[in-house]
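Can't paste images in this forum, so I'm doing it all in text. The chain is below; anyone willing to post the predicted structure tokens underneath?
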Amino acid sequence: MARRRKGQKINGWVIVDKPVGISSAHAVARVRRALDAMKAGHAGTLDPLATGVLPVALGEATKTITYLVDARKSYRFTLRWGIATATDDAEGAVVARSEVRPDAPAIRAALPAFTGEILQVPPAFSAVKIDGKRAYDIARADGDPKLEPRTVRIESIALDRVVNEDHAVFLVTCGKGTYMRALARDLARALGTVGHVAELRRTAVGPFDEEMAIPLEEIASLGHSAAALGHLLAVETVLDDIPALAVTESEASRLRAGQPVPVIRSANQERIRDLADGAVLCALSNGKLVAYTRLEGRQVHPVRVLNH
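Text version of the structure:
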């Protein structure tokens, strides 16, 4: 029997515009099959009912996912007033109703309390683990997952428009771990009513925004072709906010071998002047990412090595 081919060594990022109705894992699998890529992963799960920016990492780019997961994210969501659901979105069973409908001035007056670092209890139907079990597994078994509040950061939240008495659209920029479903739930409660997310779209993740996103069906239709690979972004694209150090080929070889290299060039010393030990830097050789490194004194030690 012939040995099963594992796929091509493709390194980089494809920014997918995920459609409604499929999981993030399903979207990644379709991109991997379409491009015949050996390895793939994604940065930041989107619920099946959500659409928008889903960065898909291929090959060596999967080693940079951690840094993108921690990046700032932006969302646009429609809040449906007056109906609470078990899942805090349109998919769940109705669990409460209210006749209260806040107007625009009341909504805007409530928003400052949801800006900055706030405490947020994740939705019952979430992937948060409780004693080794996912909260959604407990909830689906008719249990009551006891979720503790967590500190999240919301950089900005704005009322985009009031669609009608029952619906309003919001724009949010936030840090990692923030649930839009929980934000909508809590905002509705603060306004004396109940509510859920009727529609949700992620508009940006780190350096990637929706203008860069390619519809999943378009990527799937192109298959493993030059046109499809034309949508591939360099592994280094996610590193805009991480200081970069230039290294020689011999230094790059040392890093790949797990050995530290000294920071001796004046340009590099200028970059690390205000950095404390433990800071993460990316080492580049001829413009290619060699490794993530950790600063210790006047040396950088490899943390994650990439092999292009």
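Residues 54 and 217 are 14 Å apart (CA to CA). The first strand starts at residue 12 and ends at 18.
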